[in-house]
Write a structure and sequence with these properties.
homodimer; 2 domains; 13 helices; 14 strands; Aspartate Aminotransferase, domain 1; alpha/beta; Aspartate Aminotransferase, domain 2; three-stranded antiparallel β-sheet
Chain lengths: ~375, ~375
């Protein structure tokens, strides 16, 4: 290769990148903390540099308490929350595994789909989107089905409902099943309590409760689940997400696997440091307080919530779209007038709910009040009479 | 969930992130351009925001000429180069597919491993690490094996050897096979020429020839390969890397798939804009010139190159470790004294070669001369007499 052939037409230079300023009140990505933007401009090091492994160790130490776990295997997957979900499913579901899914929302459907792609035998306990499972019905389902893997979603972003996990985990452990819990929306904003609940595999994302840009998926795996992993009969179809290879990279030998996205690890470290500075309990309480404030404000404008009070996610709220109002118009107006992003419902909830995230830097009284004021205006402009 | 239980022990706040300043003369990640650090601090938008899709469209338009293709399906995978490799393999290899791999280095081994994990039937044309394939032997191999998929590595980062692809692609197309080419190290630093060569699926990374941080994998797929994809008999085991789902997200419908790592897309756009500003041919020539300058300097200190002149990668150079010198000591000294990172060999080349990357902002006369001076010093300190 000593000659140089010209390539296709030369590309044209673009204008400077100039993103619009958004207030991210949707289900995620949410507002990034200014200090996180700052650390992402720090110089990268190599993916085998001792400094990189210092950062991954610090991330593990800071992640454990946020997950509520002492699992030594606590890392970040080099992909988004969906990659974390696929890591959980592909490592613990193999051909013929029976997988019991608590199916009350979109992300439970995604888990089911991923499990089928691993040739797992999926059995589903279906409920309407927004409902949750009582302890007794959860236990009954698991005892009846006797699966090898149980999966549920702690905070179902598509519905706004929070599912308790203790009874699920206890019943699963009676029959030696591995419990996978989707913590994508809960981590950093609601208590996750992996060890206390008995969750074996919990994964999350960087761009919701942790206020980072998207791109990493924190995951923690119990020693129990790791021993199940060792007794797999087949090799994981995925090389990129194979946790045994990732263990060799992040732990002990630091054997090269992939080139980790170092900048996003800097971001995650800073995000977790912000949690530590604020205090985890203080942070969770701040989300709870501002959830209550938001709901009060919504109810004051005569909106009703889709999920009963005791089952609501704190940081992702789903008021019903009032009759006669077109939710897409309201959302478009908020985006156009104030740069405010919220989301609509989808699947069975399309057109029926708004999805409003109150997370990280936006989980403050001032921001919630500002949001309520603008939301009220946008609804009124679409013909709704808030009182 | 209206009560708040305390979590495990509170984490302790860490000191400010203070990465050491490195000069990344290794195989990658390589030095990030200052303007790329700048754009990563710009505010993110949502993964379904019209602005995000404006950015992905711009990226496609800028990527096409760098890949040397007019493929409409030209996107970035939300994972590192290894995720791009797994996207290529998992979409085009299904259970029972016969996969012919040109196996002359580590990344060809990785492709083989991934193809086996898809239950593909892998046949390998093995050569010692650093050698390449002549047109006639490549054609003979493909005609004999008659595979459904052919895979080769354009720039084999583990050896420093560049493999021409035209004869491989022509022979593969005679039997309607899909050609996967690993362009992880070549893109942005050497001519890739996807269309002219006849490559069907080419993937790369962000952190080598494009001078971004790691985390994205540009990939381009020919219309021919897309029609093969449509006639798959089984569904891809991977949901995260399923190109049919990614097509629905990035093209036409913009149907939600995953939450793309927006910040890294900003970075990739800026990197491609830098290529457009410099001019692609100018950029490639700059890499070629500085490759020649480096090799001349290495030969002046009596070092020999592992790969014959006509088969060398421009941006990744593999001089042999001189007899009596411990390569790990040389590398440790460079890192300690000057913050210079280079890599050693591994597998059959462990202890036998250095791997020196001259890419992006480091592919200048000044940086090459500085590197040569420091490399000479480090070798001398380890007992080598450069003349």
């Amino acid at each position: 290769m000593t000659t140089l052939a010209p390539q296709a037409d030369a590309p044209h230079k673009l204008a400077e990148l100039n993103p619009p300023k958004r207030l991210l009140f949707g289900p995620g990505p949410t507002q990034v903390h200014p200090r996180i933007y700052e650390v992402m401009s720090k110089p990268i090091v190599g993916h085998l540099d001792p400094f990189f492994f210092q950062v991954t160790t610090e991330i593990r130490d800071l992640l454990q308490p946020v997950f509520g776990t002492q699992n030594p295997f606590t890392i970040a997957i080099s992909g988004t929350g969906s990659a974390g979900m696929e890591a959980a499913v592909s490592n613990f579901v193999e051909s013929g595994s029976k997988v019991a899914v608590f199916a009350n929302g979109y992300f439970a459907d995604r888990i089911s789909e991923m499990a089928r792609r691993q040739d797992g035998h999926v059995v589903r306990f279906e409920k309407p989107w927004g409902e949750v499972y009582s302890d007794s019905e959860a236990v009954e389902f698991i005892r009846r089905e006797r699966p090898q893997v149980v999966a549920y979603v702690t905070a179902e972003t598509s519905t706004g409902a929070f599912q308790k996990g203790k009874a699920i985990c206890d019943a699963a452990h009676e029959i030696d099943a591995v419990v996978i819990a989707d913590c994508v929306t809960s981590l950093g904003a609601m208590p996750v309590e992996v060890d206390k609940t008995g969750i074996d595999v919990a994964y999350s994302c960087s761009q919701k409760g942790l206020s980072c840009p998207p791109g990493l998926s924190p995951i923690t795996v119990s020693p129990r689940a790791l021993s199940h992993l060792k007794s797999r009969k087949t090799v994981n179809h995925s090389w990129y997400l194979d946790l045994t290879l990732l263990a060799d990279y992040y732990e002990g030998a630091h054997r090269y696997h992939h080139t980790a996205p170092i900048t996003l690890f800097y971001a995650l470290r800073e995000a977790l440091n912000l949690v530590a500075e604020e205090g985890l309990d203080q942070r969770l309480q701040r989300h709870y307080r501002n959830h209550k404030r938001l709901v009060k404000g919504l109810e004051e404008m005569r909106l009703r919530m889709h999920v009963p009070e005791q089952h609501r996610i704190w940081n992702l709220n789903t008021p019903l779209v009032p009759e006669g109002v077109n939710d897409a118009n309201v959302r478009a107006r908020l985006l156009k007038d104030q740069g405010i992003e919220i989301a609509g419902g989808f699947g069975p909830l399309a057109g029926k709910v708004f999805r409003i995230g109150i997370m990280g830097p936006l989980a403050t009284e001032e921001k919630v009040d500002f949001f309520l004021q603008e939301f009220r205006k946008a609804l009124a402009a679409e013909g709704y009479k808030p009182h």
